[in-house]
Amino acid sequence: MKSNSKQNVLILDFGSQTTQLIARRVREAQVYCKIHPFNISIDKIVAMAPRGIILSGGPSSVYDNDAPRIDREILDLGIPLLGICYGMQLTGMLLGGRVERSEHREYGHAKLIIDEPDEIFYGLAGGKPGHQVWMSHGDKVENIPKGFKVLAHSASCPVAAMAHAERSIFGVQFHPEVAHTEIGSDVLRNFLFRVCKCVPDWTMESFVSTTIEEIRRKAQDGRVICALSGGVDSTVTALLIHRAIGGNLSCVFVNNGLLRKNEPETVLAFLEQFRLNVVYVDAEERFLTKLKGIEDPEKKRKIIGNEFIKIFEEEAAKIGHVDFLAQGTLYPDVIESVSFKGPSATIKSHHNVGGLPEVMKLDLIEPLRELFKDEVRKVAKELGMPYELINRHPFPGPGLAIRILGEVTRDRLNILREADHIVLEEMKASDWYWMVWQSFAVLLPIKTVGVMGDERTYDHVIAIRVVDSLDAMTADWSKLPYDLLGRMSSRIINEVRGVNRVCYDISSKPPATIEWE
Ligand code: XMP
Asked: From the CB of 514, is ligand 1 less than 6 Å away?
């Protein structure tokens, strides 16, 4: 649906933290959209024939010397436009309005009073006298440009929304994309459907069929190789390519010996039904030998990454001539490299197959490049993956190695694997598993004194880590019921030999991280 769709909405990024959220909200309304840097050329915009343009917010002041700007002519293209926060101020200024400069930022909740139930506020003016919205701005539009009218105000912001209805240019000072803005989705939907005249045709069903076509066109008779980790991204990538080119896809599943209990078996058993070509590589010994004596977390990551690449290359050589490398790259990874901010310091993207593309020098096939994680999950459902697999907690590429603090040994792996399994079993039995972002056990590099029967013990400590999060960038520890924590603790101490103490990690991210290493 994407390449042949006229439904494209462009989001021009001025560096706001919430630009990605705008795109997600638009996609949730089943309209295809993409984020572009603010300085994309007008020719490119025209060539894409978008139904609408959304200008994001951003940290700058329109008066800054190096303030990001768009070509004024973009406003004259006749394409409906919605400016959000900085996007509104910039529109206001470019069209001859006056923006008031402010030395301090104002942010938080505000009550929005709708004065004109015009297009973007259609159906929202009745009922409550005010709507809760989220504001985060320094400057604000003081005098609207000629031909505009004020659509809404708040106590501290006389022009909280403005419009030039005939030109279909709108501006909102608040952020409709964030959840704190109650009417946010409605405002965006009004813009998309009433102003831009989009129809909701971006569905994962249509994505699957067009993507399979595209893969077929690109791969033709070529051979594709894909690293399977068992995670939802790589599995969906493989399933889509398999549907497109069948036997010309070879998947490599590397068991690095750092996986959870029963992991390789579960993944392979699931894949069996699809009759994928899967090469299973048992490389436990190789990884453990390389990790001998290594305590530094970053060294562990590097060793594991390099060994993985080596093994993958060896397997590729065995397969023979290969034309393409398939990867489960997602849209947020792509945005990072194209957006205004450039590679962002705050967003951490860990690639389980990091380094492969550079080394392999193969053409890439990345069918998920345009999708957000929640969209990948929908595709997974579409492809017949069961709920349990689709909604599994994320698992880091270096696996249990970064959950064993200090040296990774077979004995330590066995202890952690058993303890982790109990944590997961109890999380699932209580249904808490489906309500949190991640849950796992960590093996600490210390021993403590305990007592068992009449005997004094001197054994390992397990930490349980369970967190709530939306995107892993921030996280909070989950408030699990005491009896659930108690069951985990007594089961681990009773069932896992070598553990006599269990702790619960109650730190949030930041300043802690989700993983311990
Ligand atoms: P942190 O610990 O940075 O983790 O708060 C954020 C998310 O990333 C996962 N993670 C990794 N994933 N390779 C990966 O593939 C890694 O080296 C790695 N380190 C952390 C972590 O599980 C969490 O979901």
From this structure: yes
Point out the ligand 1 atom lying closest to the alpha carbon of residue 517: 2
* Calpha distance 145→149 (Å, rounded): 8
Question: Is 105 a residue whose pLDDT tops 70?
Answer: yes
Cα–Cα distance, 467 to 462 (Å, whole number): 16
State pTM to two decimals: 0.83
CA torsion, points 41, 46, 50, 53, in degrees to nearest 10?
40
Residue 383 to residue 365: CA distance in whole angstroms: 18
- How far is 488 from 480, CA to CA, in rounded Å? 11
Question: Is 90 exceeded by the pLDDT of residue 357?
Answer: no
Q: pLDDT, tens digit, for every residue of 266-285?
A: 989 988 888 899 999 999 99
**Which among 198, 140, 125 is positioned nearest to 168, based on CA atoms?**
198
Q: What is the pLDDT of residue 106?
A: 75
Q: How many residues does the chain have?
A: 517
Quickly list DSSP for 152-212.
EEETTEEEEEEEETTTTEEEESS-TTSTTSTTHHHHHHIIIIIIS-------HHHHHHHHH
Query: pLDDT (tens digit, 9 = 90+) per residue, 371-383?
Result: 989 899 999 999 9
135 in contact with ligand 1, CB cutoff 6 A: no
Q: Which residues contact 51 (CB under 8 A, 6 or more apart)?
A: 6, 7, 8, 9, 31, 79, 80, 192, 196, 197, 198
Query: Residue 448: what residue type?
Result: T
**Which domains are assigned to the chain?**
9-195 (3.40.50.880), 204-390 (3.40.50.620), 409-504 (3.30.300.10)
Bridge partners of 108, per DSSP, are 135
CA 479, 482, 483 angle in degrees (round to 5)? 130
Question: Mind telling me the catalytic residues?
Answer: 85, 175, 177
Structure tokens at 74: 């973009």
